[in-house]
Fold:
Amino acid sequence: MFLVMTMESLARRERPEQRLDEGLLGRVGRGDLTALESLYLQTEKAVYALALSILRNPDDAQDVTQEVYLKVRAAAHLYVPQGKPLAWLFTITRNLCRDLQRVQARTGQAPDGLEDDVRFSYVSDPTDRLVLEAALKTLGEDERQVVLLHAVSGLRHRGIARDLGLPLSTVLSRYSRALKKLKRCLSEEGVRL
Structure:
């Protein structure tokens, strides 16, 4: 129960989920830097959470997050409104993460992995940080995506399902399964739940 409360409080601590205005992308495509700033402020935590769930390295996730917005600025004029602007950002994020993973594999650079002093820029509470570190270590990519999108960016399950193109039931079951794994992992590490 503590784990669920921790994840829920972490999600609520962030700003409440709001629908992203598709008009922002059109304005960004026309060179409006104020719109780009607004888009960044509304979506950066979700983009970072997705990148972190894929790359499992906070520094690489921050680099990819910045690169996403460079790509958006360059390609926003190509965006075709379909009611899912965050899904478009997630596609760019996933593609950039996969590109980075391919480069790292080709050059023999293994990701640094997690260290004891990993700093999550959005998480200051030590318990929340412990839960997120456990999530990165123990969960599969699909589970990490759902948990981090919910916990770090504050997206609701219905929004995650919409933006990842998954049924709501799939997102809910992944989240539930992930919480059970995290609870088991944290109790094995001696964290009182």
Observations:
- The longest helix spans residues 33-55.
- The chain is about 70% helix and 0% strand.
